[in-house]
Specification:
Largest sheet of chain A: 4 strands, mixed
CATH class of the largest domain in chain B: Mainly Alpha
Strand order of the largest sheet of chain B: 1-4-5-8
CATH superfamily of the largest domain in chain B: Butyryl-CoA Dehydrogenase, subunit A, domain 3
Number of domains of chain B: 3
Number of helices of chain A: 12
Order of helices and strands of chain B: HHHHHHEEEEEEEEHHEEHHHH
Structural class of chain B: alpha+beta
Strand content of chain B: 15-25%
Number of strands of chain A: 10
CATH architecture of the largest domain in chain A: Up-down Bundle
Oligomer: heterodimer
Radius of gyration of chain A: 21 Å
Distance between the termini of chain B: 32 Å
Number of strands of chain B: 10
Radius of gyration of chain B: 22 Å
CATH topology of the largest domain in chain A: Butyryl-CoA Dehydrogenase, subunit A, domain 3
CATH superfamily of the largest domain in chain A: Butyryl-CoA Dehydrogenase, subunit A, domain 3
Shape of chain B: globular
Distance between the termini of chain A: 29 Å
Number of domains of chain A: 3
Number of helices of chain B: 12
Helix content of chain B: 40-55%
Helix content of chain A: 40-55%
CATH topology of the largest domain in chain B: Butyryl-CoA Dehydrogenase, subunit A, domain 3
Largest interface: A-B, 46 and 52 residues
Structural class of chain A: alpha+beta
Order of helices and strands of chain A: HHHHHHEEEEEEEEHEEHHHHH
């Protein structure tokens, strides 16, 4: 048994921490937030460091890493509440390109993605607020040259800047997935921001044509592929939650040591010490389970799904507690957007809904544990 | 023992309900219920309707233009206002400063300050908290130094709600440096539209602009703008804060939020089934309803005790604490069950056809914003301290 990182993995972690500490302070992040929620410069830096391919196998043009490398980066991104869409483009997008496409189309798009030249977004869910990918109305009809898609996806994370969308649609074979270009005729994108400051969009497809080579995975085979992608996303979110929550423990400790009320630092109040201890307990449990989730991704589907869900249940508990208590212990300062605590709180709160909420993961575990 | 309101009070509630149904403008009600920000003109429009009815000064004596209502009528009024979806009024002026002036003001001050509040000409904010004086309010540092028949005021107030809409501020200031920090504090009434008073916005989580920093630099305030005796503001404030706490029960608010949560559960489909028909959500809603009922009857007990003149500070803290937690729990339920509906930042949604249903646009912003309920007006920790120290005497 060994929970340590290899020396290469330690180097990756150190370089991510160093870069973000120097180039991604809260002030710098606020500027990115004002400028649209995405920094092309930062993204190019990520590409330059090899981060965008760090978690992809060599046969996909990556650098031979996997979920552990993804977790190392996501933890660092969580600590700094990085706005850039590593989760959408690299974790989910990268997996779907790698597993769903073939030949030169696959290698060409992966190369662009790893080089920082391609932004991706998953447009899978529709009006039903659950996580069941099959409950959609978007239709794809076969044509002589490929497919025609018609439908609407209201909430697409990273939709503001994505060059291509993975769009799920019903086909006679079942649920299928298509790669749709933002600039294709008939595609309407209305951009907005999600509550964590990242970009999002509503996507309307008005009878758009999709070429045969842009079918992702087999026709009718999207459900399993989407579940796999969601599990990769979930494992990454677990690591992100650890990074953000661990930071909140540290920064709240520091704040309580310096903030004086009633003639003493707040840190002297035992009730606050215990709250911090509770947060710490949740972070440590979440950290263990983030490792479990990363390791589970290589396992057969039922085991993978059960373990990833267990990790997410823990991450959700941790995210909720750490976010709320950090705000509470900072008092009014915790509510102010001037302080980074509010940004961590918002992002952590949103993670509790992304790629399955607590109810979804508990129900999935229950079904798999019977 | 009788757990019901008297027939007279039930009739009063019916009268209030029917007035609110008929008098509250529909556009204001709709936007308040959705969680949209209202303009100051909207607030003034509503206050003028209340003033015309004679119900704006709901906690003031009749001789000063108030209703002369007792604690039970005031409680019913507060509950029904929230239930109806009425917007906030100028609470610092109506609920706090008004009663203070009526209790402690000179006759001249009553004539000068009370009527402009009822005419919505003076809009007040409350200058209590400071950068180093939050829960420990008595640590405040804003100084007022006597110079002839003026005070010269310097200092900073923080978390000042709606200072951006206000033209007057009532401040707790230090008029002398005493050993005991609760001594030497006085109330000054200060016009804001003058040089030396600066309001800087503080944007809080969810992009909300409700609170501000107010700096006051070398502002000369005439001595006749001091409310109450010099150095006596602390005991005057205790009278106020206990009042703020019972309003903090937010019964009307919680009742309304729970009704909203039920409506949300009926209209929202999850995995092909309306949320309202999933056993899990039904149980959660039932649990919240049980919590609400427990809060309600505890608040009623406090109220009955208050009427009987035996209100205990500790039980008021129970109500304030649970009221805040319950409002948060209901709001967070809607956020969590909303799934991707909670994703968009409502302030950035595109114009035109709504991307998500309009009734669901504000779940996230409200879930974020209502974290403040366990922080302001005496935090959850402070309420527990009060229960432990003043009631349990440990």
């Amino acid at each position: 048994m060994d929970f340590d990182y290899s020396s290469d993995q330690q180097m990756l972690r150190d370089s991510a921490q160093r870069y973000l500490q120097q180039q991604y302070s809260y002030l710098q992040r606020e500027k990115i937030l004002r400028d649209g929620g995405f920094s092309r410069t930062a993204w190019q830096d990520f590409a330059g460091f090899g981060w965008l391919g760090a978690a992809l196998p060599e046969d996909a043009g990556g650098f031979g890493g996997g979920p552990v490398e993804a977790g190392i980066l996501m933890e660092a991104f969580g600590r700094h509440v990085v706005l850039e869409p590593f989760l959408s483009t690299v974790i989910v997008g990268g997996l779907l390109l790698q597993q769903g496409l073939h030949g030169t189309r696959r290698s060409e798009l992966l190369e662009r993605m790893i080089g920082g030249e391609l932004q991706l977004a998953l447009a899978a869910l529709e009006n039903d607020v659950g996580q069941d990918f099959a409950r959609i109305e978007t239709q794809a009809k076969a044509t002589a040259k490929g497919w025609t898609l018609r439908g609407r996806k209201a909430v697409v994370a990273n939709g503001g800047i994505a060059d291509k969308f993975f769009v799920s649609a019903r086909t006679p074979e079942g649920l299928s997935l298509f790669l749709v270009d933002r600039t294709a005729p008939g595609v309407k994108v209305r951009s907005y921001r999600s509550n964590d400051g990242q970009t999002a969009a509503e996507l309307t497809l008005d009878g758009i044509d999709v070429a045969r080579e842009d079918l992702v995975g087999p026709a009718g085979g999207a459900a399993d592929l989407l579940t796999l992608a969601a599990d990769h996303a979930s494992a990454a979110i677990c690591a992100e939650v650890v990074g953000a929550s661990a930071y909140l423990v540290e920064t709240t400790c520091e704040y309580l040591k310096t903030r004086e009320q009633y003639g003493a630092p707040l840190a002297k109040f035992q009730v606050l010490q215990h709250k911090l201890a509770d947060m710490y307990v949740q972070v440590e449990l979440a950290r263990s389970m983030a490792h479990v989730a990363a390791a589970a991704l290589a396992k057969p589907a039922p085991e993978r799904m059960r373990e990833v869900s267990a990790a997410r249940v823990q991450a959700i508990k941790c995210a909720r507690l750490a976010g709320r208590e950090a705000v509470q212990m900072h008092g009014g300062m915790g509510m102010s957007e001037e302080l980074d605590v509010s940004a961590h709180f918002k992002r952590l709160t949103l993670t509790t809904l992304q790629f399955g909420d607590e109810a979804f993961h508990l129900a999935r575990m229950a079904a798999l544990s019977e | 023992m009788d757990l019901n309101f008297s027939p007279e009070h039930q009739a009063f509630r019916a009268e209030v309900k029917s007035f609110l149904t008929q008098a509250l403008p529909d556009d204001i009600r709709q936007r308040t219920l959705r969680g949209e920000k209202l303009s100051k003109d909207d607030h003034i429009r509503w206050q003028r309707i209340l003033a015309a009815k004679g119900w704006l000064g709901h906690c003031w004596k009749k001789e000063y233009g108030g209703t002369g209502w007792g604690p039970i009528e005031r409680f019913i009024w507060d509950e029904e206002l929230h239930l109806a979806g009425a917007p906030r009024r100028n609470i610092p002026a109506i609920d706090l400063l008004g009663p203070l002036i009526i209790e402690y003001g000179t006759e001249e001050q009553k004539q000068r300050f009370l009527p402009p509040i009822l005419r919505s000409e003076h809009w007040w904010c409350q200058g209590f908290s400071e950068p180093q004086a939050g829960s420990d309010l008595a640590a405040l540092k804003m100084r007022a130094v006597r110079d002839g028949d003026h005070y010269v005021v310097n200092g900073t107030k923080l978390w000042t709600s709606y200072a951006q809409e206000s033209n007057w501020i009532f401040c707790l200031v230090r008029t002398s440096q005493e050993q005991k920090k609760q001594a030497g504090i006085s109330y000054l009434l200060i016009p804001m539209d003058q040089p030396g008073v600066t309001v800087s916005p503080i944007i809080t989580v969810g992009g909300v602009h409700a609170v501000n920093q107010v700096t006051i630099e070398d502002v000369r305030v005439p001595v006749e703008n001091r409310l109450g005796p010099e150095g006596e503001a602390w005991s005057m404030t205790q009278f106020l804060l206990s009042y703020e706490r019972i309003v903090g029960a937010g019964l009307g608010a919680s009742t309304r939020y729970l009704a909203e949560a039920r409506a949300f559960a009926r209209r929202t489909v999850r995995d092909g089934v309306p949320l309202a028909r999933t056993p899990r959500l039904r149980e959660k809603l039932a649990a919240l309803e049980a919590d609400l009922m427990a809060l309600k009857y505890t608040a009623y007990r406090v109220l009955a005790d208050e009427v009987a003149g035996k209100a205990e500070a500790s039980v008021v803290s129970v109500v304030k604490l649970r009221g805040a937690q319950l409002q948060q729990a209901i709001t967070e339920l809607m956020f969590e069950e909303g799934g991707q509906l909670s994703w968009p930042d409502v302030l950035t949604l595109p114009e035109g056809e709504p991307a998500v249903p309009v009734d669901d646009e504000y779940h996230a912003q409200q879930a974020f914003d209502r974290r403040k309920l366990t922080i302001y007006g005496g935090s959850a920790e402070i309420q527990k301290n009060i229960i432990a120290r003043r009631i349990l005497r440990i």
